[in-house]
Amino acid sequence: MTLEDTFDVVIIGAGHNGTSTAAYLAKSGLSVCVLEERPECGGGQETAEPIAGVRIQPHAIANYGGSAPGWEQLELWRYGFRMDWDPRDTVELNTDRYIFTRDGLSKVTEKDMMGWAKISCMLAGNDAFRDLMRATFWCPPHPAEVELDEYNIPFMQVYKQYEPEVWTRELLEMTMFDLMDEYLDTEPFKVTQAYIALSSGAHGHMEGVAIPAMCSSATVMPPAIAKPVAARGNMHGYFHALFRCATANGAVFRTCCPVEEIIISNGRATGVRLRDDSTYGAKVINARKAVISASHIKHTFLNMIGPRHLDAGFLQRISDLSLKGGSLFMSHYLTKEEFRYREKYRLPPPNDQFTGAFFNMESREIYFKNVENVLGRQENLTLSPDEAMWGMVAASLYDPTNPQCTRPGQHINGPLWMMVPTPEYNVDGMDAMDKENEKQRWAEFMRASLACIVENLDDDNLIRMFTDSPFDQEMRNTGMLGGSWYGIRCDRDQWWNERPLPELSRNRVPGIEGLYLAHQSSSHPGGLCLMAVAYNLMHILIEDEVAEPGDWWYASPWYIPTPGKRSAHGWT
Ligand SMILES: Cc1cc2nc3c(=O)[nH]c(=O)nc-3n(C[C@H](O)[C@H](O)[C@H](O)COP(=O)(O)OP(=O)(O)OC[C@H]3O[C@@H](n4cnc5c(N)ncnc54)[C@H](O)[C@@H]3O)c2cc1C
What we know:
Distance between the termini: 43 Å
Bound molecules: flavin-adenine dinucleotide
CATH superfamily of the largest domain: FAD/NAD(P)-binding domain
Oligomer: single chain
Strand content: 15-25%
Shape: globular
Largest sheet: 8 strands, mixed
Mean pLDDT: 93
């Protein structure tokens, strides 16, 4: 006999999106069970301690969530969320920023900063900036019946209200480079912003996603937030607060519980079946109201549902979804001495500490060379170390009272992240970067690239490097196909109403009632924009009478209800 258990909602996967959804639903008074395959929750928001006293971040590092309604709605401060800075302190919009190129440092100009402030609505005030971010990420896609145009796309409405001079129909066709060419000044600044977008969300060179790309960078960079790594305990510390919020409201988490099958009966998802060796006594977990998959879209449809319940054409389109969003190779450096910049990269006082860098940001030519290699030819990089683009946070960016390395006389810097082909598409095979010699070659390549700006990376100083390839990231995290933070390609075809397929963009699965999607690979806007997937999904669950949140809830002002359904606007 198979033991069974029953909850209102069953969620597959305790990564960031499964857990934030659990927090929202448990706070709405539902009984929620979250099933996680790994022994630990957190998914890609993980901090690891590979040797005692040394903390590293194998995936998430930066807080992309400044404008999320979830900070207020889930009240994360009650559950231990802390920052390294006081949010009441103003962060100046100044030109005291330098960009790393092969020739040395390029200073950001007044025109750069003012142009950036204009297009990101910062000049129009805090509310305008927050609204632009929320309109872009924290708002569910419109219903399929609504024909999108320049008057109803949420971010266009924000420009119209706060920055009418920026508003033009062409915004919907532009690349982020086109937009920056109109408003900014120096090439290295533009290239840096486009590179941050490339490694954070919609790509800086893709047509039609200029605003989502610009917002991907604006939501994580100063002055919008004081510093990207301000969450105490890193992004896993933030995850702890989410997890505590969910459990304090009654959600149940079960680890070492891989879901093998989503049970579908008469066209309705009624629960899940766990693998026989899972640690939960019950092997069938029933869902009275909904099953939510916060696991990868391909895994969800191809493995956990399978062809019996799905149209063959639909399944083929799921198989064909492109994961060519690029992946990140991460590395950390444990040294005896602190890093020293080479002479031409020494910052003028008082900014003479190594806080990290973006290199090599000198030109679009370099940007496209990297893009061609990573997203075009999809092979191990054929660039020279001084041409490779990367970003890095350094030890001194963390709060000194909460250092990443507590070993006396030792320092950890990192991660350094470099965009590389997604393993599934590497022309030399899935493990092209992971074969024994290749891995060493990669580590040396990244070290050589970092050594372009840091002068003491020699063997005498370097104690150890910790590297983490995209394939390693997949091994650490069963939900992370492609080792990618977005899990799919980040162009117009897979954004907002198109993501991941137009008929799935409002999180429902046509033909299977009671089944919803909440993974970074299956939902708008995907990874990074913290709590956005859960917040957007809540609108849909309210419409479907699954969730009935209290008066702490507010819907996105730009959300359009599905015709014939209950509205998520002020329904309480
Ligand atoms: C290299 C890298 C750098 C990143 N940097 C940042 C950053 O700086 N800031 C930031 O905010 N984000 C960052 N991210 C993205 C962030 O990690 C993701 O956005 C986030 O992890 C997505 O959460 P998720 O819940 O959708 O998916 P995941 O984190 O993938 O979680 C899915 C969970 O589901 C579980 N699971 C899968 N299948 C099953 C099953 N059948 N049964 C049970 N459990 C299952 C998995 O084990 C996993 O725990 C980065 C990601 C990567 C790869």
